[in-house]
Design goal:
The protein is mainly alpha-helical and 152 residues long. It has a domain at 105-136. It has helices at 2-58, 61-65, 69-103, 106-118, 123-135.
Amino acid sequence: MSKTIEEKKIHEKNIVKEVSFVEKELLLNSLTQQELLKTTTDLNRTIQELTKTLKLLEEHEYLTLHKNKWKLIGYNIFLGMLFAIGTVFGLVLLSWLTLHFFRDSAMLTQIVQNQLKVRQFDIGEMREKVKNELSTPHADTSGSGKNWSGLK
């Protein structure tokens, strides 16, 4: 009789083990299914958003503009002309602003004078030297007898 009681206990333990194993597997399967359901829901939401975006892009002017090659050529020529006009206008404006900023600038005049002093270059002295050279006659070295220094 003790053997049968022990066998029953062992058998009950085995049954409990099997039941717990089955329940564990069922629980794991249930959790896996829940995660798969969440993933599927997220994928469906993402697909719906992508579908909306694609519909919006199909209606976009860029795609309709580039279906015709002549529209594409005209569009690019127009953009090129606008870029060229903008560049020229910008350079003219920049040049004008630079000219008017530096024309009467005391600071720029001071910088130029300092640089001329450092290099020991006097514009007034150079002007006088050039005038003197132009006004004095030079000996004719060409042998033609003509004096070119008198011409102004």
